[in-house]
Amino acid sequence: MFHPLFHLRTHSRYRHWSIGLLAIWLSGCSEHPISFLDPQGPIAAAQRHQLGVIIGLTSIVVLPVLILTPWLIVRYRYGSRSTYRPHWGFSKLADIVIWGIPCLVVVALAVVAWRGTLALDPYRPLSGSEDVKPLRVQVVGFDWKWLFIYPDQGIATVNELVVPVHRPLALKLTSASVMQGFFIPALGSQIDVMNRMVTQLHLEADNQGEFPGKNMQYNGKGFHHQHFVARVVDDSAFQNFVTRTRESGMTLGPRVFDRLMAQNTGRALVQSLEAPGADNATHEGDRRLRFGHLPANLFDDIVEHATPDWSSIKSGGTRNDASSSPEARP
Amino acid sequence: MTHWADWMLGRLDWSALPFWDAIVDPTTKNIVNAIIASGAGAMVILGGLIVVGVLTWTRRWRWLWREWLTSPDHKKIGIMFIAIALVMLARAVIEAVFMRLQQAFGLDGGFLTADHFGQLFTTHGTIMVFFMAMPFLTGIINYVMPLQIGARDLSFPVMNSISLGLTAAGAAIVMVSLMLAPFSTGGWSGYPSFTESAANPGAGVDYWIWAVTLSTLSSTLTGINFAVTIYKQRAPGMSWLRLPLFTWTALCTSILMIFGMPPLTVATALLALDRYLDFHFFTADLGGNMMNYINLFWAFGHPEVYILILPAFGIFSEIFSTFSGKKLYGYGALVIATLAIAVLSFTVWLHHFFTMGQSAHINAIFGIATMLIGIPTGVKIYDWMLTMFRGRIRFSVPMIYAIGFIMLFVIGGLTGIILAVPSVDYQIHNSLFLVAHFHNMLIPGLLFGMLGGTNLWFSKAFGFRLEERWGRRAACCWIVGFMLAFFPLYALGVLGMPRRSVAFFEPAYLPWTVAAMVGAVIILVAMLCLLIQLWVSVRDRHANRVPGGDPWDGRSLEWSVSSPPPEYNFPVIPEVHSRDAYMRQKETGGGAHPRPDDYEDIEMPANSAMGPIFAITGFLLAFGLTWYQWWLVVAAGVAALIALIARGYVRDTTRLIPAAEVRRQHEAWLATLASLTPVTRADEQSAANRGLPASPIEGAVQ
Amino acid sequence: MSHRQLSDEEAREKAQELRSYCWGFGLAAVLTLIPFGLAAFTQIATATLYWVIGVCGVIQIVVHFRFFLHITLARNKREDLQLILFTVLILTIMVGGTLWILFNLYYRMMPSMIP
Amino acid sequence: MSSTPIRHPGLNLGHAHAEAHEASESLVFGFWVFMMSDLIIFGLLFATYVTMLGGTAGGPGPGELFELKSAFIETSLLLVSSFTFGMASLALKYRTDRKVLVGWLVVTLLLGLAFLGHELYDFHKMFTEGGVPSRSGFLSAFFALVPLHGLHVTAASIWLIALLGQIAVHGLDTQTKTGLMRLAILWHFLDVVWIGIFSLVYLGGTA
């Protein structure tokens, strides 16, 4: 079966080196890929490709204006000797051209937009290779930090999304506060997260590295602090991360949950918890937290505004899905 | 005593003062912000005191009341609308400069607090849309449209005055929020649940709701007024296909106002019910959901975009045709394109929230509908280019704005198409790319149109031309400043910088934010140039007088009367025989200014205090609602109702101007005309231009 | 103003208009009684009932416009009719769009909101 | 600009008043435009109501709160008042006795007030059964839509009283007549909106 997304990917590399150059120039002083112009996954790459196609098609209409207008005002300026026909106001040929060409361009654009939109629907699951199941992650937007729950691994993190490379991601997202926008530019689409609602997003990373993620929807005075890092690692490093977090991560109990629900930045949250589980490995580590124990169905309870089932932490409920976990692979 | 004060003041207390935070918590940042905020408040108070002082000193209160505030004359109301727009423009541009400065220093810091920054982008957006753009275009349509269709006034002159009053009240509410802070931080679109009382219990959002509501009511009434006027008051012979293009766009804009404003009324009213009476439309709990607000807001918001842009299109059509000395190319196509844009604009609102999670099919359909608007818009651009083709282009100030517009607007069109593709929008939604895009549409599109229109019609309103040199400097600064301020934002947008961030942590953004700051400063210089232009023009008004009324060799009827026109516009209602009615009059034998055989008494609307009454009661109502001063709400509401009912009992609503008086004024003007020397277009920008063009146009073929 | 003698033509016209109001009232009354009666006294299938309610409602709106508000196809009523039809178009777009968008959003994000 | 005779109900301004004709034509057309703008507000509130039907949040729903009988009484009151206003329009147009006109207007006003009274009683009953707007999104939507119609009826009634006062003070001059014509449009229009309300909200809710 012909997969439109795949189709978009194959051509992007060759045709749009110019955009690639632009990307390097634009983000020259950046340490990590911060934009889809320097894509790190198939979705972002397809979006960059589409951007190029759209600019190309639209230029058919736009460029003549930019080129001809200066020519017109020089040639027909007052005092020039060019033809002057004050009563001329209609030409069938010109009308056919100026209606026809934009119409054709819009038809072409419409085809591009239709196919691209259906192919890049955030809800559409990505089928990686046959034997790799997508990694499920549940994302909760708080004021002003992000909580990532790995339901199959029974762990959770704040402001740090660790994922294995080349493995599709299936994200379910909600907000515990007002509307926010979840976005990792280098990997792909943004999607809104809203209280009591669950949105979905599917991403995949082609390269390892650290990619900034952020909130795009203003939600108060801590808004600009609400960024996180998406760390793409190889399989063994991911496994290592899961194991370490399970063993040495904090417990997400009622006290921590209250602090999460309060309006504070990641840094303030960590400080208020004096967290032993905080990962201090990086310079931004004082904003991140890892949890090895958390209540079962925490995400659903947040969506439903229900009190999390704190008793499930001790009863081993954190790993309720461990038996069916795709982490069985070594 | 305390109880009494509580009852009087509602929830208004000391903490509303703009420097309160600095007193309670005197950190450096708070003190800096308090100085900026209090400075702004002081400027407003000082400005108000100066105006009051000058009026008192020159004993002009009675004059102000009689000649302006209670006047039902569409020309004066138009001028007052534009005055509001210019004052608010100045404030919003200064706010923009502060925001750009903040972001230039915003790498992990800056000097503004997050709350202050939030208020800045909210007031900037709210003012620019509701209290700059809307009054500006309303003012210009008010002034020009009745003159273009050969009418004496709008259909409902007193309602026009009420519209002005409501807009003024809304603008005053936004201004008062500088002194009794804070304003909302929810952005000009005010999305819940951020703006619900659970997240934002203060007075800020309420200020925003009532200011916007006043503006909405005003615009709805204005829309009805304009549409009915164009339907019913056209001069004999002014058939639909003879209407000047500006009037066509005015008609489409007013239709959009009539049908586009109600969704906003509903959205803000439901939000107010949530906030005041504990309803649950957009709350997170008890069955509410905020998605409907976003849906309703943009069902207004998208037609609104075309409310803003269409009149500017009309003005540019007039400018291109007038300053190319040529008939407009493709009149029919331009009319059809305008109508198509108006109708299509109701079908695209979802493209403002592609990322909310609806199905890909819905996204794609609305995306394609959005692109369809590109077709008529593109046709218009090419029609204007073909209007210049084989013309004689004169670079007077309006034409400079128009050329800047046509070149920059297509770039905005390009980025608009990019945003209209949902899958790409997922990358740039809510980023600075979006901010750059809509500024690219609204600054060259709307603002250049309004400023060009002001330069074009100023002489009609005041009898002397605006000074050219400073005008040209202003136009060039606007164009350069715009490019420098907003093209970097495109780059920042594709680099993923969210809009509305007070600070950022990505060093790659810094060069771009600094460049944008420089652009903003150039725009500030452009504002100064405008001010100097106005000053110099008033100073040299005698040198630049155009008593002939037709300084640009105009084509439509507004140029056929004196500058400024008599209060009844036309001594005798003209009969129209073709498109470009006045041009034809000049070209054919009958003479540009035929002497009428006889004059008739003219019935004009009498002055009415309804406008000021509604301005005051509207303001007090909104103020009382914002601060929970219920006694004020009741009192102002009852006063407005009584005024409305009492107005129904007034029978003395017209004033008669005797035929002899009309004859005297018109004969005097004809005598002035006879004393003027006609000038060719070569002398258009010189002091020799007294508003009487030489005919025929030189060097024409065919 | 006192009582005034109507000319024959005026009297005819008046009688005709009176008949028109009566017709309108009668039709509206019937169109109200049908859905109310069906809802109150019968047990017909809900889907059918919704259809009946909808159709009667729409017809009754037309009846009101025709007999009470005097909107007809006559030439001097064209502007009013055009205005109403344009409003219907805009209403269809806005109301239809709102329902389409919101129920789609509910379906994908908030199934509990679908009644 | 049309020279065709004006046929709005109730308008009969006499021969010598061509300009008054024109002015009132603008007035009536303008009022129509206003009504259509208002209709968009109602349309969107209807749409909002439908989208909030699922938002009962465990509170009482339409089946528990609405009564067919009172909806029918309200509908009848409003329909009859529309008819009586029509009679008033006829009396105005054909210049029958002013007493007849005033009589029909007073009957219409009383019917309108009766409608309002009944509606308020209904709301009161809903309140006692826990049907308050702060209970759920669904009830919020109901209490935005239906009372807004009631508010319109209230405004129309106040206007009617004001016009009765104008008749008393100024007699039936042009301004009073055009006022009555516009009020007639508003009154019939409110009945049209009510058709939507009783069909969608009451019949749809209880069916």
Q: Strand share of the residues of chain D?
A: under 5%
Unreliable segments of 5+ consecutive residues of chain B: none
CATH topology of chain D: Four Helix Bundle (Hemerythrin (Met), subunit A)
The largest pleated sheet of chain D is described as: none
- The total strand number of chain B stands at 2
Helical content of chain D, roughly? over 70%
Note the run of SSEs of chain B as H and E: HHHHHHHHHHHHHHHHHHEHHEH
**Shape descriptor of chain D:** elongated
Using the CA coordinates, give the radius of gyration of chain D: 19 Å
Number of continuous helical runs of chain D: 6
Percent range for β-strand residues of chain B: under 5%
Order of helices and strands of chain D: HHHHHH
Distance between the termini of chain B: 86 Å
Protein name (chain D): Cytochrome c oxidase subunit 3
Family (chain D): Belongs to the cytochrome c oxidase subunit 3 family.
Membrane topology (chain D): Multi-pass membrane protein
Organism (chain D): Salinicola lusitanus
What topology does this entry show?
The complex is a heterotetramer of chains A (about 325), B (about 700), C (about 120) and D (about 210).
Chain A: H1 4-15, H2 17-26, H3 42-75, H4 92-119, E1 135-142, E2 145-150, E3 155-158, E4 160-164, E5 169-175, E6 180-183, E7 190-193, E8 199-203, E9 209-215, E10 227-233, H5 235-248, E11 250-251, H6 254-261, H7 266-273, E12 289-293, H8 298-304
Parallel strand pairs in A: 1-5, 4-10, 11-12
Antiparallel strand pairs in A: 1-2, 2-3, 3-12, 5-8, 6-7, 6-9, 9-10
Helix pairs in contact in A: 1-3, 3-4
Chain B: H1 2-9, H2 20-24, H3 28-57, H4 61-69, H5 74-104, H6 114-149, H7 157-179, H8 204-232, H9 245-277, H10 291-323, H11 331-344, H12 360-388, H13 397-420, H14 422-428, H15 432-462, H16 468-494, H17 510-539, H18 581-587, E1 602-605, H19 610-627, H20 630-649, E2 654-657, H21 659-675
Antiparallel strand pairs in B: 1-2
Chain D: H1 18-51, H2 62-65, H3 68-93, H4 98-128, H5 137-170, H6 174-206
Helix pairs in contact in D: 1-5, 1-6, 3-4, 3-6, 4-5, 5-6
